[in-house]
Design goal:
9 helices, 282 residues, globular, Prim-pol fold, alpha+beta, single chain
Length: 282
Amino acid sequence: MSEAPHLQHTASRLAASGVPVLPLRRGKVPFGNCPACTDNACGGRPNMKTPGPCQCPGVCHAWAAATTDLAVLTSPAWTDAWRRAVAVAYHPGGAGLTVLDLDDADAIAWARTTLPATRTVPTTRGEHWIYRGTMPSRNAVRPGVDIKSSMSYARYLGPGSGTLADLPDAVRALAVKEAPAPRPSAHAAVVPPGVGGAECPHRTPAYLARGIAMAEQRITEASSAVHATVYRTFLAVLSRHGRCGCLTDTHIGRLFTAAQAKGESLRHCTDAWTNAMTTLGL
């Protein structure tokens, strides 16, 4: 509670410099959608993949809520969110930036020997290397390295030190060579195409679409025990569709995206999916 004025002041200062900001709640994740925006009722796009037309005055839609509008940042709804917030985050892509999130000493050592020096910010376990320029965000492009730029958010941990350098081709190449999709392509064959050759009883598009949407909503609305919620949701989806070949790479990607929007890492998503498959004997 006592940090609210400090966080709001920091956010306003960043916004005035052209950096879109948003508050993070406990767990260092964005605030969930308000009741009026639940299940995309507001017309915004699901999973926060792109900002929708929603005009909600609250702090909705994760990274897409990030703003430089001081009137919004100091509005009653946002002021209430700042009172409950634990940190300030920003949308790097909206500021024309890319953040290389280096999660451990090995990742930092790799960057120092491979990439041009730029502005760096210490984190709890590693460093953020910030470059001028934008690109698609990708997680786990190599061990201990995530890329946060467009359609993503990064926690603001201070101005850092060093001079901003232009985004190098070596970082862009990471996404192209090692993360061509939101999830590794190995997951494309993670669900068997129909056990025993049985005809799939769930291929009605509306049935499957409704099931996936409900699973996404269950993950998105989790306010606590996110790890457990993700696992139980994966388990429920696989128990219904895992043996008949209904699930495509796109469906699985949507579930992973929803989980990652709640702060889950790609590794946690992969482990939860694998454990659910093992439990069901798939």
